[in-house]
Every structure is written in C-alpha cells, then in structure tokens.
Amino acid sequence: MNGRMPRVAYFPDSFHEVNGVAHTSRHFEAFARRRGLPFLCVRAGERAQAIIEDGSVSTLELPRGFLSFALEKDLRFDPAFLRHIPLIGEVLERFKPDLIHITGPSEVGILGAGLAHHLGLPLAASWHTNVHEYAARRSGWFLRLLPKRQSAATGQKIEDLALAAAARFYSVARVLFAPNPELCALLERSTGRSCYLMPRGVDAELFHPAKRTRLPEDREFILGFVGRLSVEKNVALLAQVQEELERMGLTNFRFLIVGHGGLDGWLRERLPRAEFTGVLKGEALSAAYANMDLFVFPSHTDTFGNVVLEALASGVPAIVTPDGGPRTIVRDGQTGRIVRDEEFAAAGAGVLADPARHARMRQTARAYALTASWDAVFEGVYAAYETLLAPSEQVTSAG
Q1: Which of 22, 28, 97, 327 gives 20 to 30 Å between its CA and that of 399?
Q2: Can you give the pTM of this predicted structure?
Q3: Do residues 244 and 345 make contact, with C-beta atoms less than 8 angstroms apart?
Q4: How far is CA 113 from the centre of its chain?
Q5: What is d(CA 81, CA 83) in angstroms, rounded to the nearest whole number?
Q6: For residue range 219-258, what is the model confidence (pLDDT) as tens digits?
Q7: Which strand (E) or helix (H) includes residue 135?
Q8: What superfamily does domain 8-201+373-398 belong to in CATH?
Q9: What SS3 class is residue 26?
Q10: 67 with 44: CB under 8 angstroms?
C-alpha cells in the first residue's frame, strides 16, 4: 500500500436494524470516521438514493422496493435490489476502492461480491450469523411432524446443506473474518480460505453499572434478556427457567425482556410477571442492563453475543450455553456461568443465593468488559486487509 491506508467499500447486510451485524457496522463506520480513513458504506435504508459525505467517510444508502419481503420484523430482503447497480457502479468509480468487504449473503452482500468480481477487486467477507443453525431451527415446525429418529437426521441434513451453501458463497472471498476461533476454524475447513478473528467491542461508558436506577427498597432479583424474540435465540427456555425457579420455592424475581420478534406473544402469555420493553436504544438500553441482576442468554446459535458483552460492561453476570460465541466471552464462575439448558435455573439460583459471590462476579464482569475495545477490533481488520492486498500488489509490481 506504499504507506497509505486502503480505500474500503463496505457492503453490510444490515445497518439501521437492531442486530449484531448492524451494531458492528455502525461502529466500523464510526471507527473510519474517527481515524480519517477512506471508507464507503453501501447499504439499504429508508433514504431515497442518498449519497452522504462526512469527512473521509462516504455513504450510499439505497431503498428497498415493493418486492422486498420480511425476514424478521425489521429485516427485509429485496430480490430486485440489482436495479441499483448503475448508481453503485458510478459511486465506486469515483471512490476507487482498493477492496470490497461484505458481511453475508443478503441482496447487498451478493451485489457487493458480484461487483468485486466484475471490477477485479479483492473481496473480504465477515461471517456474523450462523445461517446453517438458523435454517435447522427455523425448520422445527416441519421436523416435529417426523418420527424422532428421522427428525434428528433430517435436521442435521438441513444444517449440513445450509452450511455447504454458505461456505460456497463465502469461498468467493480472498479472506474471511469471524467473531470466534471455533468459527474461524470451521470456515477455513469448509472454504479453504484464511480466516481472521473479528470479535466485538463495547462502549464501556454507555454501558456502565452507574446507570442503575432501581430504588433501594426494590429487593426483587431481575433476570434480563436482550435480543430478538425468535426460535433461534432459544427464548422458550426463559419460561422453563421461571417454572423451575418457582418449583424451588423462589418467587422474589421477575424478568426484564428487551427486544421484539415472532415469539413475543408466546412469551407474554407464559411470563406474566415480566416487563416487556420492546426495542430500546441509547441511555434507555444502558439503564435496562444496569437494572438487571443476572443476564440470561440461552441462545445456541450466536456467533459472538454483543448483548452479553454489554451486560458484562454494565456489571451484570451472564448465564450462557456451551455453544456458540457467548461462551468465549463469559468466564465460568467468574463473570457468569456456562451451563446446559436444563441447568440455567439452578445456576441462576446459585449465584443469587450468595450475595458476596454475586458482588464479586459483578466487579469481575465489568473489569473484563473494559478490555474489549472497538478500536482494537478494527485495527485488527485493517491489519488483515494488508495481507489481502499485498499479493495482488506484488503481482502488479512484478509485471
């Protein structure tokens, strides 16, 4: 690169929505702006073909059309998004990127990958969502119709096929990024490409124990959850946790549920003492975290778990499963617990029954979160870009 920073055209699946891809993408753009890096973000949004320049950062925001359909409450897919190719091509020609970085097989990511191939640009891709595991869990309605043995085998086959399809898509990139070492190893095996760690950071000033607003006389324990209320997040386990705690004779607790999704109504029926806030952002979200006593996150499919890190930064120990990214954040017995589904209630009761242990966990959780910096995450990404660009430059100079 002869000492200059690479010009990056970034095509995220999601930016304005409430999910891990969007959260990371917003921080990535903010990092580029803070550092004065040449950065173009091409994304879907509500603005009508808006081109915005803010210092070193340029944004091309394009609307989805009437053919788009919902994947989640705030996540859509537009099969006609290709109509924007002429405008994107013009913007890319002016920006002159050194590489294109996509985040997944959405219409935006597919378009970015196609343009990288067409323009002869190196392609980087980051894996944010375990689409293969989502596919298996979203097929639960069908699998329940099959005999038990056949259901398990069919579920595994769906997961294997989805992983093979995703790996085929990601293999078009020259380098990959993933949020935990296990996923990096899986991607390297399935795609034959190098994979670099791209974990997550946290705003430790926004998410802070001092944001707690509960009154001293409020002696109930608050068990919290933040995220999409959907089957792949395994949120049905929250109802089971409530039942098991009550069977233990514990009634001095309530749930605080932040988020929305298809299982909202189902949970409201089964958690009558829970507070459902819907989606929260900013100070309202940080206060919600700080007001929790334990964070209960039963997902098996999350690749990292931004919300777990935000809980830890708020001084809230987290209970997570042994699967996926959250277990790489939590230190069992120190910042929370890593347990199987059937152990969630007992683990929570054990922590809350020991005030001294709970207090130590709160302090240790906060201390760990202070080591997680967004700047360090994206500095690592730019270091990996150098390895992506070096080979092509060597070929060019040799010619």
Answers
A1: 97
A2: 0.79
A3: yes
A4: 21
A5: 5
A6: 899 999 999 999 889 999 999 999 999 999 999 999 999 9
A7: helix 131-138
A8: Glycogen Phosphorylase B; (3.40.50.2000)
A9: helix
A10: no
